[in-house]
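Appendix B, record 7
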Amino acid sequence: MAVLAVAALIALALLTAKPVAPVETFVVLPSADGHTGTVVVQRGEKRQLLNEPYAASRSTDGDIQHLSAAAVDRAYGRTLHSLPSRPASFLLYFITGTDELTDESRQELDKVLAALRARPLPDVLVIGHTDTMGDALANDELSAQRAERVKGFLVGIGIPGERVRIAGRGERELLVPTADEVDEPRNRRVEINVR
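Structure tokens (predicted):
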């Protein structure tokens, strides 16, 4: 009987309780390079501009607060640390007419490998490009060979092949616009996008 009475009281409390509006909190976080974007928070006619690092606003009170990095870490650190790593992009350059990396790009491979190893299951897109020297069809083939060559490097260091997608764009997406038959080293590249 007592259990039934308690259950009835709980049911009555649930039926008469007002729903609680969710509290939304907006915090502006600086990017890795220190740049801070802007967030506009609007409630009805009231608009707030959050454009400083760690500026915050809650939907319940609407006042702008200025938090410290430590306060944000205490309040949201677990959530922030559980987010996936930010995407990273790299450019590697090639010797004219080949799928051989330049010496500078061989050194850049260490940064690529570090970014890949920092992710438990990286998703990688490798896009090969050429300059405008030579035949367009041959450049399509060369750009695909460059992408395949870089994929081979990545698989060789332990990245599963199914995690690496490749594409060849030939001379269609020039980094530096040029006329036809122009030897431009910055167009002989592979873009590596890591997520």
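Remarks on this record: The CA atoms of residues 104 and 110 lie 11 Å apart. The chain is about 35% helix and 20% strand.
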